[in-house]
Amino acid sequence: MKHVVEAICTGTARPFNGAETSAIAKQPREGVLQFLEDGLTRDEQADRRVHGGPEMAVHLYPLDHHTFWREELGDIALLDEPGAFGSNLAVRGIEEKDVHIGDRFRLGTALLEVSQPRQPCWKIEHRFAKACDAKGMIARIVETGRSGWYFRVVEIGEARAGDTLERIAIGESEWSVARTFSALIAGRASKKELQELADVKKLAPKLRERARSKIG
Question: Rounded to whole angstroms, how far apart are CA atoms 216 and 213?
Answer without folding.
Answer: 6
